[in-house]
């Protein structure tokens, strides 16, 4: 049985109200999202800013209520939990944020920050709390003597370690990592990612790893779900998705990852076209206004997220007929003349990682 099962989750926010309080427009932040996560595994939720990743996280933690859909955690229906059961659940699922400085109380020492959850959930008798704090600090690679310091006395990476230790204090089964390394120096990122992986192996933690950056996700995810405008457009085991992305949006996100070899050539898929407006969401496939492979059907009919035998699921009418990702990503060419024409309008050859370019142009779309 999966640790977490999310089915048909929907959350629309009111974006505009009339003078009399009537809802005039809705943001479809999350619109029919389903996925599952095994204990001890990592699911990465990937997509541009505004695609609904954080809203999914908040729904999974039951910090906000969905309009419809279900969330099952360890076999329990989260939406049916009474206050006591919800309190117990708060221990089992934790979250760490992009900016640890904002999430750590500046007036508390690291020791006090780590003692707080122990006391709140009555996890450790008062006499043993100091030892438990030292243990937590060691677990995240910090010296116990640092317990006396305040957040501003730590580096960004150290602060993220304290935020991780605070999450671990309650011995959770699931941690939502919301862009946990985006605010950190590039040189520190891999240290924090390694720490998260080590802790997962040691403690059997499951992670939902929220990120806009597929390069980061590559180092940590077992499964990836790519989101666009409140919906999952592709989901697969990480290896399968990175080796062979199928949805044009995933291909474009992947093509923006710098190549490991500086001289390697690749075609960067540039997505242009009309960017969907919050008040005028695209009909049919929500990606069609930016898709290089759009056909008439995409404008009228929303594609279902369909899985093949291996569990690789894609929401695209043209999955079966598009060229393999190899034909796009490592600049191997090989398009049929008709597809080459389409791709040419949206792609350009680049050389080397430094000029690999950004795969998506324009500001991120909003959802309605
Ligand atoms: N409380 C709210 N009220 C109204 N709209 C909201 C609210 N929370 C989120 N939204 C909107 O819902 C959409 C999805 O937001 P969300 O924060 O989940 O996206 P995201 O992918 O996590 O983006 P980011 O990476 O920028 O946090 C956005 O259009 C956002 O403006």
The structural domain count equals 2
Based on the structure given, which CATH architecture of the largest domain is correct?
A: 3-Layer(aba) Sandwich
Number of helices: 12
The total strand number stands at: 14
CATH topology of the largest domain: Rossmann fold
Within CATH, the superfamily of the largest domain carries the name P-loop containing nucleotide triphosphate hydrolases
| Average predicted confidence as pLDDT | 84
In angstroms, what is the radius of gyration? Answer: 22 Å
CATH class of the largest domain: Alpha Beta
What does this protein look like?
The protein has 368 residues and is an alpha/beta fold. The chain has two domains: 2-221, Rossmann fold, CATH 3.40.50; 244-345, no CATH class. The protein has twelve helices and 14 strands. An eight-stranded mixed β-sheet has the order 6-7-8-3-9-10-13-12, with helices on both faces. The chain has a four-stranded antiparallel β-sheet with strand order 2-1-4-5. A two-stranded antiparallel sheet has the order 11-14. α4 (110-120) crosses α5 (129-139) and α6 (156-168) runs parallel beside α7 (186-203). It is globular and about 70 Å long. The structure holds adenosine-5'-triphosphate. Adenosine-5'-triphosphate (ATP) binds next to β2 and α1. Adenosine-5'-triphosphate binds at residues 13, 27, 29, 47, 49-55, 212, 366-367.
